[in-house]
Design goal:
- This protein is of the alpha/beta class.
- The chain has 14 helices and 13 strands.
- The strands form two sheets. A seven-stranded parallel beta sheet has the order 3-2-1-4-5-6-7, with helices on both faces.
- Helix 8 packs parallel to helix 9 and helix 11 crosses helix 13.
- The longest helix has 24 residues.
């Protein structure tokens, strides 16, 4: 039996459907709130973690492999309690970055975007909450480091930049298996393809800055850079969701520096409107050092948009490996923001992104970890 330790996530039902097509000997154990689930449906193959002991006794389960979807203390504890078996870690991102920030000096925020105060690298509304969270993380980090180094056999994700962080900071000794959930709507990809085919020579001077009000987007740093360059193009900035304190600060900063050239987007956008925002922008600037907004990035590349990334983004190794045309903040200038990609560059990025989103690629990913 292949046992999957999961949470009640929106993209898990599609994962289960794809996984079952490759290997039907799966059991899914849900951690977190008890049923009724929000996205998952209870079945003989989907149970809550509180049911595990009785389920195991009744069905006499022999565990062949364990797949940990999002590393947590509860899941580490569960795996330690069963006979040793190959462990596959299906990486999310937050199951590494928070600990890196707290204890390994991983820098997500540029100077202008850092919060002032004590322990601000730890999440929490006030100092007491942050201190409590730090203490919890400190205890957890000891279990985490040992488990990751000695119990995890396969790390499953598509970004070698994140794998490098794991090896550098936690001396990970397992193997990387390239994997992506395929958590996108195929109809959305077809919509982008149709637009590209209908608009092969589209150009725009509009700049799209980030995908949300996340603090890790380093909005103020980038707005200041655009101001210093003397950029007068429209800078469209989605701020309808994210960190509310950061959104407020970004609004004030952007209006003060760029004036009427700053175009904050505060209202919710449905998927179609959001895709239109991406492909109607000639340039996209992402401020994240961590892996974030992956689908937005690849949709921008697919649509022919010129993309600028954090010069230390963990995504750079993957994009270089695949052969995408992209740029970093170090390349920002008035000239670079007035020079769209060539037709050859656009076609290259379109072809690579189509392959990234293809059903064949996703199927190969699932076969890689489940066969």
């Amino acid at each position: 039996m292949y046992v999957h330790l999961i949470n009640d996530e929106k993209f898990l039902p599609p994962f289960i459907k794809r996984a079952q097509a490759v290997q039907d000997n799966n059991l899914y154990i849900v951690f977190g709130a008890k049923p009724p689930f929000t996205f998952l449906q209870e079945s003989e193959q989907i149970i809550h973690s509180s049911e595990w002991t009785d389920y195991q006794l009744k069905h006499k389960i022999k565990i062949e492999r364990v797949y940990v979807h999002l590393m947590t203390y509860q899941k580490i504890k569960w795996v330690r309690a069963v006979p040793k078996t190959p462990v596959y870690w299906l990486f999310y991102g937050n199951d590494l970055y928070e600990l890196l920030m707290a204890f390994k000096g991983f820098k997500l925020y540029e100077k202008l975007d850092r919060r002032k105060g004590i322990f601000t690298r730890i999440k929490g509304k006030n100092l007491l909450i942050r201190l409590k969270r730090w203490a919890e993380l400190k205890v957890y980090s000891l279990d985490y480091e040992s488990f990751v180094r000695y119990h995890v056999d396969y790390w499953c994700f598509w970004s070698p930049g994140d794998f490098d962080l794991l090896v550098e900071h936690y001396k990970f000794q397992g193997k990387m298996l390239k994997f992506q959930y395929g958590a996108f709507n195929p109809e959305d990809i077809e919509l982008i393809k149709q637009w590209v085919n209908e608009n092969p020579n589209f150009s725009s001077e509009d700049i799209l800055l980030n995908h949300s009000g996340s603090q890790s987007g380093n909005h103020k740093h980038l707005l200041a850079q655009l101001h210093d360059l003397g950029v007068t193009q429209p800078v469209k900035t989605p701020l309808s969701y994210g960190d509310q304190a950061h959104i407020k600060a970004t609004l004030e900063f952007g209006k003060r520096l760029l004036g009427l050239d700053f175009h904050p987007i505060l209202n919710y956008m449905d998927r179609k409107a959001y895709f239109e925002l991406i492909y109607n922008s000639g340039y996209v600037i992402f401020g994240h050092r961590r892996q974030e907004a992956g689908n937005t990035l690849f949709i921008a590349l697919m649509s022919g948009t010129k993309v600028f990334l954090h010069p230390e983004s963990v995504l750079l190794p993957f994009l270089k490996e695949q052969g995408y045309y992209f740029f970093t903040w170090n390349d920002l200038s008035k000239e670079s923001l007035a020079a769209p990609l060539s037709i050859t560059e656009r076609k290259n990025n379109y072809s690579l992104a189509c392959r990234q989103f293809s059903e064949q690629t996703i199927t190969e990913n699932y076969q890689r970890i489940l066969k």
